[in-house]
Amino acid sequence: MSPEILDRICLLHLQGQTIRSLARQFEIPKSTLHHHVKKRLGDRPHCKQGTIAIVDEYTRSPRLSQRQRQEVRQWMVTNLDRIIEVDTAHDVRLLSSRKEQSLTNSECGRVSDFRGNLMKQRDVYAA
Questions:
Q1: CA distances from 5 to 11, 25, 28, 67, 122 (A)
Q2: How many of the other CB atoms lie within 10 Å of CB of 13?
Q3: 0.70 exceeded by pTM
């Protein structure tokens, strides 16, 4: 698959078209297309980070109107190359709120466990 076709597919996907409809339209197996799109947009399960993931989470917010979602998606489509360029050029790990919460929970356990451990540490240092 050429990079130009993949770019076009990614833009259409960001505009809201499903992987299944794009696979039919471009006559590419759905699994292959899904792999390439997610790899290009940095949205594989172990790579849910970066600007695209953050903006994607933002557009799913129930507080946004349909018009606002469309405007954000249009901004992403217009600036996709620049977004990807900036995300790949810097060694900074950007996390969406959902991913940050997930990592916090996996590292610290439940909130009560975290607070309990904090209290135990405070008692040890006080003694």
A1: 10, 12, 11, 28, 58
A2: 21
A3: no
